[in-house]
Amino acid sequence: MKNRYTLSVFTEDVVGILSRVNGVFTRRKINIESIAASESEIKDIYRYTMVVEVTEEEIKKIALQIEKQIEVIKATYYLDSEIVYQEIALYKIANAALFAGGNVEEIMRRHHARILSVEKEFTVIEKTGHQEETQHLFEELEPYGILEFVRSGRVAISKPMDTLSSLVNKLDTLAEEAK
Amino acid sequence: MEIVANEQKTQQKKQVQKAEIKKQENIMNGAQALIQSLLCEDVDLLFGYPGGAIMPVYDALFDFEDKLTHILTRHEQGAVHAAQGYARATGKVGVCMATSGPGATNLITGIADAQLDSTPLVCITGQVASHLLGTDAFQEIDIIGISLPITKWSFQVTKAEEIPLAIAKAFYIARSGKPGPVLIDITKDAQFGQCDFKYEHFKGMRSYLPKNELNFEKVRKAAQLINEAKKPFVLFGQGVIISEAEKEFKQFIEKAGIPAAWTILGLSALESDHELNVGMLGMHGNYAPNKLTNECDVLIAVGMRFDDRVTGDLSRYAKQAKVIHLEIDPAEIDKNVKTDVALLGDAKESLVALTKLITKNSHIEWLTKFRELEQEEYNVVINKELNPTSPILTMGEVMEQINLKSDHKNIIVTDVGQHQMVACRYAKFQQTRSMITSGGLGTMGFCLPAAIGAKMGKPESQVIGIIGDGGFQMNIQELGVIFQNKTPVKIVVLNNEYLGMVRQWQELFFEKRYASTTMINPDFQTIVKGYGIKTKKVEKREDLAAAIEEMLNYEEAYFLEVMVGKEHNVFPMISTGSSVSDIRLK
């Protein structure tokens, strides 16, 4: 049975490692639903948050194959229930459509969305939430004409209390011992 | 006092000057730093092919010809396969070099082969100058991008000062853990650039810690399973050879009295005539080990990865058995076959720990079962292959003559196809690292260059390449290397004028529709003579033994072509999708 899994991948800050991680999916013909890359709380360690829909058997093997890549420090997968996660979406709507009447204000209020920027001809609305929530707002705004829409990759924080720094300290010690 | 002080001063001055001179001596260009780095890694032989973007390195190499021999192959694919043959025969890291663009892409097949067969390689490619990267410059290709999925690690050097660390890391990563190919791409400006050379061997990094702490609880569990087993069965692969655990492996199986079968990459880790050696696993392996895989109660896999050619249909593979897997790569555990106990770590360490905890045992009845099935295979297959009644020569009898006329200490190198399966099935071995074959990738054209590399790595050994007429023509140009270097390697072409293995499948599964498998070959004798190599062609049985004897005793290179049955098939066989126990004898 397929599930939605969120993968947290921690890597060294080197060129090409994203391609190596990506290759693990490509060669198995698995589509990555979303990806977000950023620095982590530790200097020079980067993290990717990737969302994929696969079976548990597949995600286990994928995580091991990713971890096998030389400059990957750790790859862990989670079910939605094991993480706190968020996405951000931006909606560009023509001012003319907003002022033509209707209840955009009421929709935004209900969705806890906010106006990010008002330009001469258009307004940018921002909504953070889970994909279903940003999608829901999209559907309600659609009749007013959405000029542009973008949703970020998921970012996620795991619920278990193991910290990256304790893992990195342990690995650093092991690497030191190897020398 | 003053005089003394002055003397001290001048001495200090001299020392400073000396240090400065020494420092100046360490200032060199990137190409020279590369050569120095290779020397620091004890490289004395490398294979390659020059070209525009690697010229500074070749120029630097010119000054070190006494310390670092470069073998000019006739194609970059020849260079990478030769480096593989060298690595597999010696256990050292093989090194090859090529220029940018087509030079680099020609290495790809060998790199992929090394990745699948865990062969330690450092491949060095030249690259266009860094300011030209991404401009589609002449002979510019993104070789890092192309090789990403088939390298254990890769790195592009754009500054001379990056070279020593890149090379140190490359050798460390290539040879440690599960070995594999590493590619270092060096831009031309980095080869010309100046750097202060300082070399330190690389010893580890936090994102790659190949050494695992052995889990003793699991060792105890595995030992208990083995001690309670009535019909234990060991499968071994190249992991035994890579971790140099041949002795420990033998002690393990001897103490527990367990029959042991090999993958073709594990072949020669245990001598052929060992009483517990029950033969070859897989598609064209021996009858008994395949059949009894589905009868054993405990299956102990040592340094092998349950390749599909070994397991057949996984849903009907050893389902009755408890599985113990000794493996260094965490990603291999449970990848194909679910294990009951996984011992993650170096095979040698795991075997030593396990041997301590197992009780001395023998399983004579169980072993007899293997020998009975072996007899069945002998009657139906082996006898006919080795003692044919028809005048047509078989591939098996050629291997058998090599066995009869030698001390079983040859290094056998093969290509891919029917002859490969026959060579693996019938060649006899006394020493480890004596079978060099392309297993995982199944690369035709592998043998000739790999045999040359093996011979150069092990000049004292008798190196015999066994090739089909198809594979011979895939890298036939490497005869030029034998000619130029007078490499005394022995080449046996088993000529059936077909792409034999594909033809066999066409016969069995495609209604004998022999699409593009017929080979109308040129006269190999004439070609090989052109390269100044002694040749012989055998078409009759009565000439075979003498020809093989002559070949083995000949001090220089020797080319023996044997005309074998055109439509002979390799049996036993597990057809695709079948279970190992459905192995057919004919």
In brief, what are we looking at here?
Chain A has about 180 residues and is an alpha+beta fold.
Question: What structural keywords apply?
Answer:
heterodimer; A: 179 residues; alpha+beta; Alpha-Beta Plaits; 2 domains; five-stranded antiparallel β-sheet; four-stranded antiparallel β-sheet; 6 helices; 35% helix; B: 586 residues; alpha/beta; Rossmann fold; 3 domains; 24 helices; 41% helix; 16% strand; globular
Beta-strand percentage range of chain B: 15-25%
Mean pLDDT of chain B: 96
Which CATH C-level class of the largest domain in chain B is it?
Alpha Beta
Let me know the number of strands of chain B. 20
Side by side, the strands of the main sheet of chain B go: 3-2-4-5-7-6
For the biggest sheet of chain A, the summary is: 5 strands, antiparallel
Q: Number of DSSP strands of chain A?
A: 9
Number of helical elements of chain A: 6
Helix coverage percent of residues of chain B? 40-55%
How many domains would you count in the coordinates of chain B? 3
Supply the number of structural domains of chain A: 2
| CATH architectural label of the largest domain in chain B | 3-Layer(aba) Sandwich
The coarse overall form of chain A would be elongated
Which protein chains are joined by the largest interface, and how many residues does each one contribute?
Answer: A-B, 25 and 23 residues
